[in-house]
């Protein structure tokens, strides 16, 4: 059996775009083969740069930090929800998940595709994307899913506080900023999004990928 790997991560580079209030992404040459015999780079960026993962501590002071996450939530079989028909600034509602609801059960890893990542690096990538409603966040929390992933930079640009608190309060791992979901070509696949083990903090960049054919 041949397993196909699909890279689901956006690029990290000096000056890579992010939210206006986030730390700027800096990728700086520190040493080179000419100076000391080997190349080394200094990186400075947000824990929520590009393709990344939110831990409950991101919005909840008593929530689990990224190093405390159960990695079983971050790796395993996933369900792909096709929402490519959604327009900019259009609500993503419970009804949009109805065709998949039989598969969305306790512990499920659910990824939704809008193809919005194609708007990068334009600034409207961070403002005009289709957004998750509070009602959908509550529906996912009620179903006790383990992970919700998306190819937009955050679930909701205006109601980000209640939406994050509903999801993270239910200990749902949030994966944001995915890419290339259209290359999976299957509703079911194996998903991997393990975070950096940053002690006591709110999130981490990830190298997310899909394995198709397992």
Helices and strands in order:
Elements lengths: L3 E4 L18 E6 L8 E5 L7 E3 L20 E8 L8 E2 L1 H4 L11 E5 L17 E2 L1 H9 L4 E4 L9 H10 L3 E4 L11 E5 L10 E3 L3 E4 L2
Describe the structure.
There is one protein chain. With 214 residues, this protein is α/β, with parallel strands linked by helices. 11% of the residues lie in helices and 26% in strands. It has helices spanning 94-97, 134-142, 160-169; strands at 4-7, 26-31, 40-44, 52-54, 75-82, 91-92, 109-113, 131-132, 147-150, 173-176, 188-192, 203-205, 209-212. Helix 2 (134-142) packs parallel to helix 3. The longest helix has 10 residues, at 160-169. It is globular. The termini are close together. The mean pLDDT is 96.
Number-wise, the strands total: 13
State the helical fraction: 10-25%
Number of helices: 3
Q: Hey, roughly how much beta strand do the residues contain? A: 25-35%
Radius of gyration: 17 Å
**Reported CATH architecture:** 3-Layer(bba) Sandwich
CATH class: Alpha Beta
Q: Main β-sheet, in a few words?
A: 9 strands, mixed
Measured distance between first and last alpha carbons: 8 Å
Mean pLDDT comes to: 96
SS-derived structural category: alpha/beta
Q: What order do the SSEs take from the amino end to the carboxyl end, as H and E?
A: EEEEEEHEEHEHEEEE
**How many structural units, i.e. domains?**
1
Name given to the CATH homologous superfamily: Putative cyclase
Q: pLDDT under 50 segments (min length 5)?
A: none
Based on CA inertia axes, which overall geometry fits?
A: globular
């Amino acid at each position: 059996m041949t397993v196909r790997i699909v890279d689901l991560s956006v690029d990290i580079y000096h000056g890579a775009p992010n939210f206006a209030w986030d730390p700027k992404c800096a990728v700086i040459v520190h040493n080179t083969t000419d100076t000391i015999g080997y190349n080394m780079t200094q990186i400075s960026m947000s824990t929520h740069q590009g393709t990344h993962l939110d831990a409950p501590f991101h919005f909840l002071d008593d929530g689990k930090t990224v190093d405390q996450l159960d990695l079983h939530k971050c790796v395993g079989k996933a369900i792909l929800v096709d929402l490519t028909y959604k327009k900019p600034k259009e609500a993503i509602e419970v009804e949009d998940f109805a065709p998949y609801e039989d598969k969305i059960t306790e512990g499920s890893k659910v990824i939704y595709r809008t193809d919005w990542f194609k708007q990068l690096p334009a600034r409207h990538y961070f403002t005009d994307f289709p957004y998750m409603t509070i009602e959908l966040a509550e529906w996912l929390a009620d179903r006790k899913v383990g992970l919700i992933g998306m190819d937009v930079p955050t679930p909701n640009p205006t109601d980000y506080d209640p939406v994050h608190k509903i999801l993270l309060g239910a200990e749902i791992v949030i994966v944001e900023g995915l890419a290339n979901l259209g290359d999976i070509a299957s509703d079911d696949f194996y998903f991997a999004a393990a975070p950096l083990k940053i002690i006591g903090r709110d999130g981490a960049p990830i190298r997310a990928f899909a394995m198709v054919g397992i």
